[in-house]
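Sample entry as discussed:
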Amino acid sequence: MAARPGIRLLVIDDNPGILELMATALAQPDIEIFTATDPHEGLRLAGETHPHIVLTDLMMPGISGLEVLDRILAMDPSTDVILMTAHYSTETAVEAIKKGATDYLNKPISIAAIREKIRGLVDALKQRQKSLNLENELLAHAEFEGIIGNSPMMWDMFSRVRRVAPHYRSVLVTGGTGTGKDLVARALHRLSPAVQGRLVVLNCSAVVETLFESELFGHARGAFTGANADKPGLVEHADGGTLFLDEIGDMPLSTQAKLLRVLQNQEVQRVGSLSVRKVDIRVIAATHRDLRAAIEEKAFREDLYYRLAMVEIHVPRLAERLGDLPLLTRHFVARFNSLYGRELRGVTRRAEILMATHSWPGNVRELENVIGHAAMLAAGEWIDVQDLPPYMLTKERKPGEQAQADQGSSLGTIEEHERALVMSALANAGGNQSKAARELRIGRDALRYKMKKYGLDDVASATTAG
């Protein structure tokens, strides 16, 4: 059986002559064309064939073209929908563009113009598919010990982990909450000579202060009320392997002193015991806190800090490596497809824009939660804006986002991002609206609407005059 053509085009018009004209004019070997004279039939075909491009008349009996637009974009927000009408009005054109139409054309339509428009959309679709294929291939080569990244900062971190892993006795991993410090710790353990031993994890922020020493160093029988038997601690449990102390900035000062002895002498003394036990462990500590500031505040021991920070590995925030956002998104979509039994194809362009302008205060963990949330809610094959958590759809910052903005994040809102794209396209085109519209892959009416929306008419005139 021959391979099905890559691009599917649906034309809906109650005039059979228009359908025949379009089917003939737009016929190409790599385009499969479907036609319908009834909008209900057109919507049924759209549900069956999942067209990439839809040409629909505006004025039809039963259902208007605007309603067809709404229903098709509800099925698949990535579809390019072009409305055609012999009753052109600026108000309707603006409404169509606001609803998500790719273009709004006035009848009679020039065959040359519609061919050029479809050719541009087909080229864009092919380019997008090529980009998706490249992203899939890149994703397969951008994973290091379970960590996804292809940005220079991440490759530098991967290189550091490789160099450090065979030799370290203690290492400090720093980075914001949700950046993946635990993944770095696991990578260090797997690449170290202690890989055959255990990786023992203690979250210091989750331990009651009065039980900290018993949990970490163990206790002797009778050491305190309820200590009915000798109990080894996590240090002994990690003997021959690696002890991972997550959020070490929350460790009590009294416990820090005893941990320093373990690091210096490779020995541990249980609470209530006089004997000392030798251990052979590697220690990885992680924190999102500024330990130097904690030292100034007498909340962290300086000698312990310098013992741990002989080697320090910093994990960058997601906002510092937004180039990795598409790879991470595809990784999590694939993961939740498997987990939930879904067949999501990815994220729509408008959802991608929204995600790219978010400051991600919760880093990769927040992205994972966002995609998991959206994967459960998405009604179609694509994750769209309405599937994202509500807080991402507002301009108000979440707690913690303002602090990140003060540290240099300049991501802005969707509107700011879109305005910048329109200005850049107009500048590149020397003020020529047709060229700018082609660069943005939208119609001239859509471009004019956005220029008016963002007050760029004067900018375009100045560009042309210059």
Q: What stands out?
A: Residues 111-141 form the longest helix (31 residues).
